[in-house]
Amino acid sequence: MQVDVTKQLAAFTSSLTLDQVPEPLRKECRLFVLDAICVMVGAALFARDNGDMILSNYLKVAAPPGPATVVGYGIDTAPMMAAFGNGTLSEVLDCQDTNLWVRSHNGTPVIPVALALSQWQRIPWGELVPAIIAGYEVHTRLLLGIQPSHWYDGFQGTGTFGTSGAAAAAARLLRLNAEQTGAALGASGFIMPVSNGDNQFKGHNIKPVHGGQAAMSGLSSALLAQAGYRAGPLEGEPPRYHAALQILSTERDLNKCVSGLGNKWHTLEVAFKPFPIGHLIIGAVEATLALRKEAIDPEKVKSIRVTTFRDAVTFTGKKYTSVESNHVDAHLSIPYSVAVALIDGQLTIDQLSSRRLKDPFVHELAGKVVCEVDEDMTRVFPAKWPVEVAISMMDGAVRKHRIEDVMWSPQRLPTWEELCSKFHVMGDRLLGAQIVEQAIDVLERIDDNSDLQPLMRLVKGSA
User: Fold this and answer.
1) Which one of 208, 219, 222, 301 is least enclosed by Cβ atoms within 10 Å?
2) pTM for the whole thing?
3) pLDDT digit string (tens) for 282-307?
4) At 402, phi and psi to the nearest 5?
């Protein structure tokens, strides 16, 4: 018997209230918004520092004046275009929150929609929290039913079913009833971007746009439903069941989409990123930075072996870079990330700059990095993301460091203060340290009756 996934998720979304959100998730929701804003600001700074005008040029022709802000760009535009701009910025640096159980970035499509609607309709924090959590849960649950086959078949869940998460958040904020919310979810399955792996992993600068398209399409789905459009469910209809959950996966268990709904909160599995790199790489960089404290001279390194779980090696361990590579190549490469972290002692947006990418020694050292699969490590992923880095020196010495619980994973979540430090690293050069501190203070002190308008004014930036 077909599981009525869409109907159940719609009922959950439309009825979710602040009181029903567990206290740990209410607190974590502030972290989600703080981190998302921080990542958007960092992306705007990265574009400025590297003379990248592509998003700016697009917004100049595509974004009419409106009530919603594109962070860091000094632009107020229509809600859907603000959602697009901020969703795209969320993906530029690959530094956003992640759920590795479903290989997707929850905040990328959901937070931009929440920000846009909060400005457009002056929605208070007490309404934003259940909408954001509903968006995260719907996004995650839909992918739980079809991952990892959806990913292995070449689709990026952030762009595909992230659209449905954004639609859920928007529907909740627009106060759509269960029937309308079901229509919004159905519409999201009809208009979602078919984000593909080649454009994610092959260094194309279109890569971050799948985040913007998911956010914009999710908001559009909810507005279509509000206007009266109706769509079939995500799980499909007989006899062919030609709908998103069916045709975008080769293996599926749709019971997982609704199992424990309202009791089991998958949003508690969300992790954060301390570095602007793919999540599969964070452990390797953390281990490398730990080894660097031993005063390793990169000039005297003979080889570096990174041993970790299979997905990390398959998707990021075999990508080698050159002076012709761009930041997309770099931040999805274990060899580059390990090499530049060992040389510089840090991994920030500066290590992804066009100037840094022109240093041949970084790529020479990256060429000495070999990644190997460990099947025991593979078996515990994604509950854990173990990794070992072994650096062999020319004098025969070998230095090793192994990590089981990677920093900012669900087992080692960042504190508020750590995320604030990340915001300062990302934002001080663009907004100024005082403005960043004011933005942090606004979000830290926000109550259920306050909206985000003061925060968005602070992070707007200049045109």
Assistant:
1) 301
2) 0.96
3) 999 999 999 999 889 999 999 999 99
4) -120, 145
